[in-house]
Automatic annotation (TrEMBL):
Protein name per Swiss-Prot or TrEMBL: Phosphoglycerate mutase-like protein
A GO molecular-function annotation: phosphatase activity
Any single GO CC term annotated in Swiss-Prot or TrEMBL for this entry: cytoplasm
Source organism of the structure: Miscanthus lutarioriparius
Length: 206
């Protein structure tokens, strides 16, 4: 949340305007100044949009009661439990479960009326979710979409509901369709689509 408010936070306070801060000063002993919510987009906390769960204490969240004192202008109303009931100290969430949770989050995104939404979360969730989401895409598209995110990397994606697409033959690869004619990818390009495991996955296999 600190990253989200730091990037998308509001303007500085002016002319005596009083609005709740997105983040209070020195939140969680961060040493950071308060971040205003003035003229900023709405911020929603979504439980499904979290890093891989279990075992690692750093992946356990604080109580919502505490978060509300640190981030007063963030909307936590979608989270049902005050305490973290998803994190289990001796069970690490599988990559398959992580991706399925991410897919449920994407299903939730489809219910939103906004056309542009910034999703601020951890690379593990993004990597495995997008790998599953793009499984029907052309191999080169899937490789590009699901590659590992660098720290604080900003990447733009357009989600397309294929049921809304017309019957005309597309001239592009997304979503999951190969263009006809000479634009077909070479065997070398197709062969290059080897699974690129996320860094965490590679480390666990080592």
């Amino acid at each position: 949340m600190q990253t989200a408010v730091g990037v998308f936070g509001g303007e500085s306070y002016s002319n005596g305007v009083s609005v709740p801060p997105l983040m209070v000063e020195n939140a969680a002993d961060s040493g950071r100044p308060a971040v205003s919510s003035l003229n900023c987009p709405p911020f929603l906390a979504v439980e499904a949009c979290r890093e891989r769960l279990g075992v690692h204490p750093c992946d356990k969240r604080r109580s919502i009661t505490e978060y509300r004192t640190l981030f007063p202008a963030i909307d936590f109303s979608l989270i049902e439990s005050d305490e973290d009931v998803l994190w289990i100290p001796d069970v690490r969430e599988t990559f398959e479960s992580l991706a399925e949770r991410g897919m449920k989050f994407i299903d939730w995104l489809w219910t939103r009326e906004e056309r542009e939404i910034a999703v601020v979360t951890h690379s593990g969730l993004l990597c495995h979710t997008l790998r599953m989401y793009s499984k029907e895409c052309h191999p080169t598209v899937r490789q590009e979409v699901s590659k590992y995110f660098a720290n604080c990397e900003l990447r733009s994606l357009v989600l397309v509901d294929r049921s809304m697409l017309g019957s005309d033959r597309p001239n592009y690869n997304y979503p999951g369709k190969i263009p006809a004619g000479l634009d077909l990818p070479s065997d070398d390009v197709v062969a290059a689509d080897k699974k690129q495991p996320c860094i965490e996955e590679a480390q666990e296999r080592a």
